[in-house]
From TrEMBL:
Gene: FAAH2
A single GO cellular-component term on record: endomembrane system
Entry's Gene Ontology molecular function annotations: hydrolase activity
Protein name: Fatty-acid amide hydrolase 2
One family name in Pfam for this protein: Amidase
Matching InterPro entries: Amidase_dom, AS_sf, FAAH2
Signal sequence bounds: none
Domain of life per record: Eukaryota
Keywords carried by this UniProt record: Hydrolase
Length: 223
């Protein structure tokens, strides 16, 4: 897939990102006995929502994020840590503190709100199990945009649905650099395999690195 199926929350995939997928597919079409096949996984466009509901302690059978981050320390002020994390003064990263805030104040209390996304998650698990089995891999962009400025993705957090959905599904995923786009920015694809088939990811990643040169420095290193 060249994107996540035009998700409602994620940004559209940039042309350079789609081209990176096409280059990788074109290479494997040349070297593989079985040609790549285009597939469309409909549920992926809901990836961000599925992930967001899955990580919420209000709707998932997991320990609260707050207790896992701060432990039993009752003296931690989440709002203080939130402000400190913005300026890099906190012992916790901004995404972690923001996740605690979302869980604590924004997550829905009614479990029925999450039921549609739980069903989508279960369907995605079945779809990928049928698709990947024990000898196939799935390729799509790592993110819909090329490499962004530091912290810029905090304002576009919904794009994490591209990668976070595979954490929820428990599938091994490997990011592979595929050079630079027309603007000189790094782009890449992610390779996803079936459960406990990490070795397929690594084999494909090595081939992609061999063909496209691995990580490419986008510019001069100063200092």
């Amino acid at each position: 897939m060249e994107d996540d199926g035009e998700g409602n929350f994620t940004l559209p995939a940039a042309p350079g990102v789609k081209e990176a997928v096409r280059k990788v597919i074109s290479h494997f079409r040349k070297v593989c006995d079985v040609p790549p096949q285009r597939v469309q996984i409909k549920g992926l466009k809901h990836g961000f929502k599925v992930w967001a509901h899955a990580v919420s302690a209000k709707v998932a059978n997991v320990a609260k994020v707050e207790s896992r981050v701060f432990g039993d320390d009752c003296n931690v002020s989440i709002w203080k840590e939130f402000l400190f994390s913005i300026f890099g003064w906190s012992d916790y990263s901004f995404p972690v503190v923001a996740t605690v805030l979302v869980e604590k104040y924004l997550a829905p209390r009614d479990k029925t709100v999450a039921e549609p996304f739980v069903r989508i998650q279960r369907q995605l698990e079945k779809d990928f199990q049928n698709l990947l089995q024990d000898d196939c891999i799935f390729i799509m962009p790592t993110m819909p945009e090329p490499a962004a400025y530091h912290y810029a993705n905090l304002l576009r957090a919904q794009n994490c649905g591209y990668v976070a959905i595979f954490n929820v599904l428990g599938l091994p995923a490997t990011n592979c650099p595929v050079g630079l786009d027309d603007n000189g920015l790094p782009v890449g694809v992610q390779v996803i395999a079936g459960l406990r088939n990490d070795h397929l990811n690594l084999a494909v990643a090595r081939e992609i690195e061999r063909e496209f040169g691995g990580w490419v420095c986008p510019g001069p290193i100063v200092g």
